[in-house]
Amino acid sequence: MFSLFPKFRFIFLILFSALVMGCSTLPTELEANSEAVITDYQEWVNQLPEASDIRLGGVIAKITNLENKTRIEVVNLPISKDGKPDINAEPSGRFIGYIDGYLEPLSFAEGRLITLVGTSTGTEDGNIGEFPYTFPVMDIYNHRLWQITERVVVNDFGPTYYSCSSLHCRNFRTMPTQGRVVKDLE
């Protein structure tokens, strides 16, 4: 009878591992057309004439609706395996993406976090303020906007005393509580 417990633990461990791995997979809207996808900005810049599929993310710097397509200028941030831009990393450059049709500028506002999937089409000369800049360019076929959510984690380690009289209790803290704000992307 006791020999079944290790088997149950093993099965539980496999199921738990599958559940955890399932939570950190790439969203379907960020899947690329090929298996060889470039996810590093500098690698893309180094392979520009030959690069094919790219998945990059960052902060929207500018959006311009043209006659038949929309131009998105993005400040690149490294992305994780699940496609989320790293909001704690330093930017490593800028790139431009073109997507067919109209995008609402309020939804795709400056400062929003985005991940784009597309094919490389070369470079485009432009300016960042007065500074001349050569932007790598992609034609976008998939994208995802991200939302920053915040939650507060309170570390309540101090001793607490309760003064109770009948049904009414009061909570007295002898030490201040500490906490921190954690930012996540959804």
From TrEMBL:
Alphabetized, the UniProt keywords read: Lipoprotein, Signal
Say which domain of life the source belongs to: Bacteria
In its keyword annotation, does this UniProt entry include Lipoprotein? Answer: yes
Q: Where is the signal peptide?
A: 1-22
Q: Which PROSITE patterns match?
A: PROKAR_LIPOPROTEIN (PS51257)
| NCBIfam families found in the cross-reference section | slp (TIGR00752)
PANTHER family per the UniProt record, alphabetical: OUTER MEMBRANE PROTEIN SLP
What's the protein called, per UniProt? Slp family lipoprotein
